[in-house]
Amino acid sequence: MDWNAVNPLRIVILDDHEVVLRGLVSCLSAEIDLRVVGSFTRVPDLLVELARGSTDLAVIDFSLGGDQMDGLNLIQVLQRKHPSLPLVMLSSHFDVATVDLAMRAGIRGYVGKTEGLAALVNAVRIVASGRLYFSPQIAEALPLGKTAARPEIPGPNSSLLTSMASLSPKEREVVRCALEGMSVKQIAEKFSRSNKTISAQKQSAYRKLGITTDNELFRIGALWGDI
């Protein structure tokens, strides 16, 4: 699709550094065919904007501070909720292993924060056109033939269905919120429970599901939808 001043590419940006965020907004807004429709420092605010369905592409920071989820979990949440939304990742972790993991999780472009703003503009346009973008030094080292394919996810099985059925109502609430990207602290505040109680319920749910990490939970969520 050809983006222009009348029909610009609608972009949302997530970066937990306010100064960096303002710079990114200023850079992309200066392009006549691009429009920043939302800029955020917190994941929940980003998710609210994306739920409105008026975004064509998201630019997200890989390393979010504080109690926010890490970059890989964020990608998985976005892929589960908005599977057709192209993602461009910004990161200071400029190494092949990190890019490989991010690409497997679903990103379409990867820009190092040391590359400069022109590289970001270029990446956004390339990814919006349906192609992949990686910086030259990463592209040379990245095994694109291997990583371009998504890892296979095993099909449904009765033991997993049984495990899901064994979750208590409160455990289901916690798991559902975790799949939406909420932290233990945020879930505790939502249900007026202590962090310790939420953490215990989450771990109990994990044991019943036969998993140990958030990544495994997102794989189940991507496969089964609502739990």
Plain-language structure description:
The protein is α/β, with parallel strands linked by helices and 227 residues long. The protein is 52% helix and 13% strand. The chain has helices spanning 18-29, 43-51, 71-81, 96-105, 117-128, 136-141, 144-147, 158-165, 169-179, 184-191, 195-209, 214-224; strands at residues 9-14, 34-40, 57-61, 87-91, 109-112, 133-134. The chain has a 6-stranded parallel sheet with strand order 2-1-3-4-5-6, sandwiched between helices. α3 packs parallel to α12 (214-224). The longest helix is centred in the last third of the chain and has 15 residues, at 195-209. The radius of gyration is 19 Å and the shape is elongated.
